[in-house]
Amino acid sequence: MDILRFATAGSVDDGKSTLIGRLLFDSKAIFEDQLEAVERTSRDRGTEYTDLSLLTDGLRAEREQGITIDVAYRYFATPKRKFIIADTPGHIQYTRNMVTGASTADLAIILIDARKGVLEQSRRHAFLTTLLRVPHLVLAVNKMDLVDYSEERFEEIREEFTQFASKLNASDLTFIPISALHGDNVVSRSESMPWYQGPSLLHHLEHVHIASDRNLVDVRFPVQYVIRPHKTEFHDYRGYAGQVAGGVLKPGDDVMHLPSGLTTKIASIDTFDGPVTEAFAPMSVTLRLEDDIDISRGDMICRPNNQPQVAQEIEAMICWMADTTKLTPRTKLTIKHTTRTARALVKDLHYRLDVNTLHRDETATSLSLNEIGRVSLRITQPLFVDDYARNRQTGGFILIDEATNGTVGAGMIL
């Protein structure tokens, strides 16, 4: 059974947490004692209905303020598919949390309040999800019950957002009118909106096609660990463990090792459950090769005629995540790209991007917390990279502060 990872985004009070609560509740993914606790808290607060948003807002500060601050991950499953939800915050000061939640998502749900329409935050979240190359985008127009389930209002929002999305790189865009509070079009089709002929949100999540989103063309296998068991019966075993980042690998395939450029063939592919006849992203496997090559962590196995770029100078869009320091030219950082860690120097900051207006400020001299900009980096060791648009694994990296060892930035290679 495959897994769909999806992130929810939207402005404050658009009902993201309520929507997730409704999905969990209507798909029978919560326990009775959880529901009782939520009902009790709702009663204590004097709300007339069961506040399902309490199922996801786990931090005490979130419950007290009634907002989402951190990225909350929730898991549920239906007979068709398993789901991992990243409930991301709406506030502008939590842009980094939104980037974290959306970076691994197959799909993003952007909620829009039917009364307020497309807000600056809606545009910002749409831009961020397309910048992070989330393949599928769902625009859920929420609180339809508060505009009398008006088809006209839904079409207005759809038209406005479609115009904005035409400037972005949005490939698959779906619009669904919902009421998370009452459950309209969330798990089952709504009788209040007979004019809407499309699927319910859960039906769409269950059936959206994600297998072809992964890059199955370019073979990329970053080596994470070299396995040399010390037991006597396996004394000649030498395997290279890691997670497939792209393409399809089979025993007998010709492969090349980077950085050496030496070629060999795959002898076998092993997993925890035994050998397999093929491996593809995002499987974790161990490759055994026919020839002995000096391979270590951080190296890359690919096809001889389809190699990533070997680069020590890269251009990237960076979301800065540190609240105490700024990113400026000449800053020295540690870069972690796939399984390779090296040191990096910020050569140049080309521009800072205003995520609300998409304006490029070329006079900017630094990036502060939650700001995004285009940067040139020089790296001490060669990295094996692809464009982020082509492969999110080999095109993405994180930046680490050498003094504190904290993650201070996330980057997408251009």
Automatic annotation (TrEMBL):
<dbReference type="InterPro" id="IPR041757">
    <property type="entry name" value="CysN_GTP-bd"/>
</dbReference>
<dbReference type="InterPro" id="IPR044138">
    <property type="entry name" value="CysN_II"/>
</dbReference>
<dbReference type="GO" id="GO:0006790">
    <property type="term" value="P:sulfur compound metabolic process"/>
</dbReference>
<protein>
    <recommendedName>
        <fullName>sulfate adenylyltransferase</fullName>
        <ecNumber>2.7.7.4</ecNumber>
    </recommendedName>
</protein>
<dbReference type="Pfam" id="PF00009">
    <property type="entry name" value="GTP_EFTU"/>
</dbReference>
<keyword id="KW-0548">Nucleotidyltransferase</keyword>
<dbReference type="InterPro" id="IPR054696">
    <property type="entry name" value="GTP-eEF1A_C"/>
</dbReference>
<dbReference type="InterPro" id="IPR009000">
    <property type="entry name" value="Transl_B-barrel_sf"/>
</dbReference>
<dbReference type="Pfam" id="PF22594">
    <property type="entry name" value="GTP-eEF1A_C"/>
</dbReference>
<keyword id="KW-0342">GTP-binding</keyword>
<keyword id="KW-0547">Nucleotide-binding</keyword>
<dbReference type="InterPro" id="IPR000795">
    <property type="entry name" value="T_Tr_GTP-bd_dom"/>
</dbReference>
<dbReference type="GO" id="GO:0004781">
    <property type="term" value="F:sulfate adenylyltransferase (ATP) activity"/>
</dbReference>
<dbReference type="InterPro" id="IPR050100">
    <property type="entry name" value="TRAFAC_GTPase_members"/>
</dbReference>
<feature type="domain" description="Tr-type G">
    <location>
        <begin position="1"/>
        <end position="214"/>
    </location>
</feature>
<dbReference type="InterPro" id="IPR005225">
    <property type="entry name" value="Small_GTP-bd"/>
</dbReference>
<dbReference type="InterPro" id="IPR044139">
    <property type="entry name" value="CysN_NoDQ_III"/>
</dbReference>
<dbReference type="InterPro" id="IPR031157">
    <property type="entry name" value="G_TR_CS"/>
</dbReference>
<dbReference type="InterPro" id="IPR011779">
    <property type="entry name" value="SO4_adenylTrfase_lsu"/>
</dbReference>
<dbReference type="InterPro" id="IPR027417">
    <property type="entry name" value="P-loop_NTPase"/>
</dbReference>
<keyword id="KW-0067">ATP-binding</keyword>
<dbReference type="InterPro" id="IPR009001">
    <property type="entry name" value="Transl_elong_EF1A/Init_IF2_C"/>
</dbReference>
<dbReference type="GO" id="GO:0003924">
    <property type="term" value="F:GTPase activity"/>
</dbReference>
<dbReference type="GO" id="GO:0005524">
    <property type="term" value="F:ATP binding"/>
</dbReference>
<dbReference type="GO" id="GO:0005525">
    <property type="term" value="F:GTP binding"/>
</dbReference>
<keyword id="KW-0808">Transferase</keyword>
